[in-house]
Amino acid sequence: xxxxxxxxxxxxxxxxxxARWLPLLVLVALVPAHLLxxxxxxxxxxxxxxxxxxxxxxxxxxxxxxxxxxxGLFSWLYLxxxxxxxxxxxxxxxxxxxxxxxxxxxxxxxxxxRYSARLVRVNTVAEAAQLAVLPNIPDEIGSLRCAxxxxxxxxxxxxxxxxxxxxxxxxxxxxxxxxxxxxxxxAVSTVSALLGSFRExxxxxxxxxxxxxxxxxxxxxxxSGRSEWATSFATALMMEFPPGNREVRxxxxxxxxxxxxxxxxxxxxxxxxxxxxxxxxxxTSEVATITVSxxxxxxxLAYTDGVIEARDRKGRFYPLIDRLGRRLSEVGRxxxxxxAEFIDSxxxxxxxxxxxxxxVLAIRVDD
Length: 367
Hints:
It is a single chain. By secondary structure, the protein is an alpha+beta fold. It has 2 domains: 17-126; 134-365, PPM-type phosphatase domain (Phosphatase 2c, domain 1, 4-Layer Sandwich). The chain has 9 helices and 12 strands. The relative contact order is 0.11. Keywords: Hydrolase, Membrane, Transmembrane, Transmembrane helix. GO terms for molecular function: phosphatase activity. This is Stage II sporulation protein E.
């Protein structure tokens, strides 16, 4: 299951109903206010302010309605209802000013609605592109139960440079979690290329080291036409769960190693790190693969460095292991979905300011 954290409101999304109707309600309220106040009390400021306020939250049609109501109310209050209009040189000066403001408000509402609609289309395409690149991880795949959660740093674009995938093959279930240099639209093409190579390689390459060589070759090819300063690279963690065995093989290319949740404790698995993909051509020896035996109820958490590099307002890094350990001691046992949802909510509770893309993948081996 993939949970994609989205914005609370899309650009261009309508304001709440009460806010859209507020300008018209204020105009209606001015009628009894006029009848209950002395003749020298002026409500010009409120009448004049309503059309621009309507333009900020509504389209040109509703803004035109509020403008017409404002002109009508102004005419009744200051031209026919006996209120003091000495603030203007003539009785029609204020009305002429209001008509001009109304016309500008309608124009402003039309321009805002047009650009908001365009922004919504752009964001919809960007989100669709991200969902097309990142797979929708099923709850169960092979012998694994999985849950993934992703939050891009650039939430206005909904795309980023983190990647993950889980594939069931004849060699067992293979997993990748990675982080491409940069974020936003520039990183999406590299993410797509790496995932394509991974999905092809898991079917043919007999071990994780050869799969890593394939990914390195793809990164080298992508960098061949770039200048030295535009060279891209990616960190990657790959895991393999052989069929019929309760164990996991792990290889890492400059990526944080996964956490193991076992018997109420959280510990980090240590694997010899290799260089990031795109830089591994400098390596003269193979990257070591470690094997870890798993027991009942073991839970693995793979994540990108955006999680542990998130800081609160005081500049403190998010202490993933400590906070996860406290949570585990409270509940005793967590499911994969609960683990992913906890990190999502706990980052907000910590007050973390997300500067980089964030992705987590929780995995449990079923009996």
